[in-house]
Amino acid sequence: MGKRMGRYTVVMERKPAILGYAAICGKKESEGPLGAAFDLTYEDTTLGEKSWEKAESRLQKEAVNCAMKKAGVTAGAVDYIFAGDLLNQCISSTFGLRSLGIPFLGQYGACSTMAQTLAMSSFLVDGGMANLCVAVTSSHFCSAERQFRFPLEYGGQRTPTAQWTVTGSGAAVVGKGEGVPYVSAVTVGRIADLGIKDAANMGAAMAPAAAQTLRDFLSDTGTNPQDYDLILTGDLGEVGSKLLYEILSRENVSIQENHQDCGLLIYDRQAQDVHAGGSGCGCSASVLCSVILKKMQKGQLRNILFMATGALMSPTSSQQGESIPGVAHLINIRI
Amino acid sequence: MGKRMGRYTVVMERKPAILGYAAICGKKESEGPLGAAFDLTYEDTTLGEKSWEKAESRLQKEAVNCAMKKAGVTAGAVDYIFAGDLLNQCISSTFGLRSLGIPFLGQYGACSTMAQTLAMSSFLVDGGMANLCVAVTSSHFCSAERQFRFPLEYGGQRTPTAQWTVTGSGAAVVGKGEGVPYVSAVTVGRIADLGIKDAANMGAAMAPAAAQTLRDFLSDTGTNPQDYDLILTGDLGEVGSKLLYEILSRENVSIQENHQDCGLLIYDRQAQDVHAGGSGCGCSASVLCSVILKKMQKGQLRNILFMATGALMSPTSSQQGESIPGVAHLINIRI
């Protein structure tokens, strides 16, 4: 069972292992630098479904099925599935996963959802409440644009700080195992809100939360950024990453040397016109559940911090003049 | 730490206790049969805020503060807050709770959220990852109507199967303690979808999930409905409750004698024009966190099953012709 370390961190005692993982993405992602690392990509963003929402549901279902297959487990053996997404009432998850018959616990952490679902899965395996859990999330450029911004047909101009929502899903099977990456510690974040109101600048809204959670973890564990092979943020993008460096530099913490951001890894920003980078729950999920975990399995990365950030707003809250609260959850993964 | 019993149930080993609880409601709820049991009620459904969404956020914040006060704990001592609501991107929770500085884990279970947040809180206390957790949820008639149905100004006619969304919030503080109600076991539900498509008949959509989870729990624990003082469903209302009896009667399971539904308890259906009963996350939350837990503390109820049900749909999924998946989570609470 987990052991609390410091104020905000839980260190796992049973080493919940990532037994299988998968990432399923869309066309633009297949054309980016990580295209070859995904388990499956679709040329058609509808995946042959009648709506983008149904397409997103299918991404999630396929990612879960693929991850379970790679882990060598069936849905009937999974105790809990933790799933969430950006759509109103998390319908990508509920409709995508309803046929699996796995006890379902919907999570809402906006783009921090992959870290949150991994945290919950690790907690329950470590606590003995579960033998096997699945963590999954997704996003889809077209379903997100029409829900959060403008109808695609409108052809709105995007600002330079805007990010491109990843069409993709990542899933991980967590259980007991040896010789595979495992979750070593978890720091759940507090909501941070410095008053950013620009819904086209999520990186700026989320950076303070990332700084806060990283600070909490380092302080709780008495470690330094240099102790980790990689500090991987979710989707701060170009703007948010720079702000994170700036906030941390005021406290003499430097992470530039071993920091990467999933939103900057997934696309070629010179060639793919994504402005400040990729975003969406599916961004960090598909990057973690492909190239990163593969590198860990090969021993090329041995001790990483995966920290996904979320902007906890809605179009309604923005229309009512509210600022954008952010949250970041951190998962220390080791091999 | 939790111990699995049967396929779907976890029995707690450390007896996570409900150290404090509170319910804050609106005017219509104050005029119902449980009006005197709530900690605070508001005559004005805006609570003096500028929008209904902000009013709902405030309900949640006040419920949490009141529950913490009654438990004798401060926000700084709480390890995790599990919160969710019906609004898009769960903004009642994120905006209501952002100032508390408690590590935040957003949950989405629609109207099953009170059971889900209690389950997660109990798991983490039982597993040793947390000493103190808060479980909270809310709903608001006006914010729900305009988001899920019609603008209030439209004055749409309600169908006989429709339910009335409760304006209210319930919160519970879960930790280690003696002499107070504690969570004895948890059964997390699987998604059930029998093809109901009528968004004005949530009771029918949720009843199959309730039957399934209750069956799972009884089978896992080898107990009968008659072993419990009360089987309390969340908000099946008149229609859903009858359907639940019907489904269970086919399997020779009878719960009528000790079943109650929060949606039928909170309003006087003769006098208050709520059609099939109350609904919304705040319905089961405010009923549990007032009259029910008070009766348990007095020893008038000693062993109950609290089973909140959720309809995992959105207006978008309904507009796209989808049916309504349901889920139900069960919490066995004892004294």
From TrEMBL, chains A, B:
Entry-linked SUPFAM superfamilies: Thiolase-like (SSF53901)
Entries under InterPro entries matching the protein: SpoVAD, SpoVAD_sf, Thiolase-like
Pfam families for this protein: SpoVAD (PF07451)
GO molecular function: acyltransferase activity
Protein known as: Stage V sporulation protein AD
Lineage of origin: Bacteria, Bacillati, Bacillota, Clostridia, Eubacteriales
